[in-house]
Amino acid sequence: MKQKIIFATGNKDKMREIRMILADLDVEILSMKEAGIVLNIEENGTTFEENAVIKAKAVAKHTDAIVLADDSGLEIDYLNKEPGVYSARYMGEDTSYTIKNQNLIDRLEGVPKEQRTARFVCAIAAVLPDQEVIVKRGTIEGYIGYEPAGENGFGYDPIFYVDEYNCSTAQLPADKKNELSHRGKALRAMKEALRGKCL
């Protein structure tokens, strides 16, 4: 019987990335929904790490599988690291990212490139069957562009540009994005930690 990892998300785009990055693990990877776990989790932590642990622990109460949860977001230095831990809830959860992205670009109008620095942050928490908690963090540095570009990403990807490739993360091919991204880095660190523990 294959070991299972349940990921505390219902986001299809995120699940696709997670499955690609963890493809070399001999485990079955399920979203909360696929595992039949329906919860409304209040993310009231003040850091990405706290929110990831809150989500992972909430789901772990309903399963003896390994549970992973991530909390990720965009920090824009010029805007005092907004939207930060509120990235998903910025301007309201039901507001489309097209509107959110345009709002952030508008707020940076006239700001020169060297002051548009930003990063994506991802914290991933694991709750193991013995209730041990492991937390890993990954980041990618970049800047906020002057217009959205690219179709390959989701969320804030179209406005987050990487100097090295001179394009947004939504313009990168999926394998390159997973190699560079905050989530890719955090998941690979978590994968090594899990290999040492229970996989």
How would you describe this structure to a colleague?
The protein is α+β, with helices and mostly antiparallel strands. The protein has one domain: Alpha-Beta Complex (Maf protein), CATH 3.90.950. It has 5 helices and 8 strands. The chain has helices at 12-21, 48-60, 97-107, 174-180, 182-197, and strands at 3-7, 27-31, 66-76, 82-83, 117-127, 133-144, 160-162, 167-168. Strands 1, 2, 3, 4, 5, 6, 7 and 8 form an 8-stranded mixed sheet that branches. β5 (117-127) and β6 form a beta hairpin. The model has no long low-confidence stretch (mean pLDDT 94).
Arithmetic mean pLDDT: 94
Distance between the termini: 13 Å
Poorly predicted segments:
none
Taking all Cα atoms into account, the compactness measure Rg is 17 Å
Topology as H/E string?
A: EHEHEEHEEEEHH
Note the overall shape: globular
Number of extended strands: 8
Query: What's the CATH first level?
Result: Alpha Beta
Query: What is the count of structural domains?
Result: 1
Produce a short descriptive summary.
This protein has helices spanning 12-21, 48-60, 97-107, 174-180, 182-197, and strands at 3-7, 27-31, 66-76, 82-83, 117-127, 133-144, 160-162, 167-168.
